[in-house]
Amino acid sequence: MSRRRLIGVGGAAAGGLLLAGCDNLASDDKLARIVRSAEDASRGFQRFAGRDALAREFSRADMSPVFKVNGTREPVDADYQALKAGNFADWRLTVNGLVANPLSLSLAQLRAMPARTQITRHDCVEGWSAIGEWTGPQLASVLMAAGMQTRARYIVFRCADDYGGEVSKGGPQSTARYYESIDMIDAFHPQTILATMMNGAPLSIGHGAPLRLRVERQLGYKHAKYLMAIDVVDSLAGYGSGHGGYWEDRGYEWYAGI
Ligand SMILES: Nc1nc2c(c(=O)[nH]1)N[C@H]1C(S)=C(S)[C@@H](COP(=O)(O)O)O[C@H]1N2
Ligand SMILES: [Mo]
């Protein structure tokens, strides 16, 4: 059904594009073509699933003067600290798993891709909200460039921070790497972007530098910060305790739609 069609489109787009180390991902009409076909696939799929509604977008005047930093404020991990010291020039986003073309994207490459800017309200499960502006390429464009296999069902986001958790949040608080996952419908939603910028400036450390997910129809904990890797998978079993996210492994809902 629809997923097959969607992936068929992706395969065709990626097939026409031999990403030689992805050097020319950002260049010219090849990418424009991928983005267009991603948009077409996205529209059809969203509509079919009944989850095509956009999250409300706001104007600059609505933006919150203060946007809280929540969860990890800065990963302490030595690898992350080294990347930060080099201004993230050596950072790469890897895209692996059930893909035709595994990718390793630099921040410059991601910044050179066509970007979407959206002013949205972030809703944290802890009861606070804030309106901010986010800019970055649509996740769909990156997935189309990687070319997903038909078995693909979920996108897993692996982060740089080891989040011990807070006792106040209840549940087992083992030390564990933050991660998240979404299904293909959210992955191809037009407002699902990999944000390199917030409020017109490069993403700060607190808000997830160098790259974080924005998945606007979902609660705050789904918006993974400090992205290192994206895995295209058919099962969430191999990650954490298998519930699809750091907080999901501690009792939160996997589908946190708003
Ligand atoms: N890697 C990582 N991503 C994360 C978190 C985290 O601790 N680590 N916290 C989540 C939660 S609960 C929220 S509300 C938002 C907070 O994003 P902000 O710090 O930009 O406000 O990030 C989410 N993504
Ligand atoms: Mo949150």
Automatic annotation (TrEMBL):
Question: Which parts of the sequence belong to the Oxidoreductase molybdopterin-binding domain?
Answer: 88-234
Q: Which CDD domains match?
A: bact_SO_family_Moco
Q: What protein name is recorded for this chain?
A: Molybdopterin-dependent oxidoreductase
Source species: Sandarakinorhabdus fusca
- Source lineage: Bacteria, Pseudomonadati, Pseudomonadota, Alphaproteobacteria, Sphingomonadales
